[in-house]
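TL;DR need structure tokens for one chain.
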Amino acid sequence: MENWTSGYVADINYTYGFYRELTPAILSLVALVKGQHGPNAAAPLTYCELGCGQGVSTNLLAAANPHIRFYATDFNPSQIAGARMLADEAGLENVHFYDESFADFADVPSLPESFDIIALHGIYSWISAENRATIIDFIRRKLKVGGLVYMSYNALPGWAPMMPLRRLFVDHAATTHGAMAGRIDQALQHAERLMLAKSRYFLVNSPVVARFDQIKGGSKNYLAHEYFNRDWTPFYAADVFDELAAAKLGFVGSAAFLDHVDQINFTAEQLEMLREISDPGRKETMRDYLINQQFRRDVFQKGHVGLSIGAAHEAWLNHRFALCVPRDGFDMTIKGVLGEAELQSVIYGPLLDAFATGPKTLREIFAGHALNETGWGQILQAIAVLMGAGRLEPCLPAKDEAKRARSTKAFNQALMARARENSDIQFLASPVTGGGVAVSRFQQLFLLALQNGQKTPEDWANFAWAILAGRNQGIVKDGTVLTTPEENLAEMGSQAEEFAAKQLPVLKSLQVG
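>> reply
TL;DR here they are.
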């Protein structure tokens, strides 16, 4: 009998990441961008994550969305134990974790009859065909009509040159023994030896050499789960669409919002080729050929219902957004497949100025005069660009924000307490967006200092450095560990000053901390 890991790496735990695309408000917005009715992220919903890893995303989203009930499973019991521990520390009552296999999960008695949202991040390409079929059956049985599915996966043709390198890793690791970390090192050394021996595979695939250089410096936790599982399949989009059709799912759009902005990704000739294709699977596959796509972040729906022009317009006007980067020194360039593009100040300037004073609905912005003459289509494209660049976030309605703030405060306190010991989780929850915000370990310590009555950046730096020094830890700057207390304190002070000037105002606007 095969053991419980089913060929999946289990002796190195997954990373402690938060994955923005899992946020209910973002998934709902994808439907709106495409003119579809979707689940209302501010309503009481049921949400399921299949393969939740360490449970950081699920826990964070549960804290930021106390009106939603979350259910998540991962086959690794140690990861589920850690996820439950974090939920207990934060006092979360709307999240439930299981260590069931995909095959057994659908029949767990405590699950809801159906879900509004089912999400899988980094799962579909890393499991067997049998498990993929099980997931599709789960979705068929458990997704509500009108519900959304988020699924990310490795894509072809972008991954094609890397497939032989990945096979090289796995085959060599299978011939060695011991802990996975050591086997990874040996597999990397073997591949490098082959490259230095002037293997023609490396000589004619220069992008593979560049990717290998990145891989060598990567986290063992990440590398183990990305490259060393027994099952590993990149997909053409059309094939995934065909598989999901068995669960009555249709493609909505990408959760990577820059994918919706054709002008920065395709030439006129390429767009003409795309316009000639009506089938969604074939069209998306053609897009992937044109841009050499490596990773897709797709949203599907069980039953499309289109919004009328008037209803879509009202929904956009009532939607709140918030800047998640400082307005001062805002980078007015954006990078698409075609290269770097300059944001038009006549459109983006007034929009950014309006959001700089805090979260606002588009209706509130249009109550002024600066944007009234700007075309509606240009405004929506600007929103997509800013979202895709990670500079703007969709927000939940202001109603019930106080309730969400109580939940996120307890959760963030639990994470900041952990920041005293390590840098595993570098995100905090926002009651404004219903999602996560990147906040480094040192920044979390600065927030703790602020909560403890320390008022100046100098005080925050002293507070943070005392914690590190008490644990015999030092700051790494430009790849070098700072050795003296004076060097460490100076660097901490510099980071505290920058935090006070740039990040702290944004975090206050998002009610994080």
